[in-house]
Sequence to fold (30 residues):
Amino acid sequence: QLCLTEEQLAALVQGLPWQRLGAEGVISML
Fold:
């Protein structure tokens, strides 16, 4: 598992196309 700070996580979230991944894609990445 990756250890990210809240700032790193926020930057990652903003940089990814969540509309394409969808909720299932996001969960599978965690």
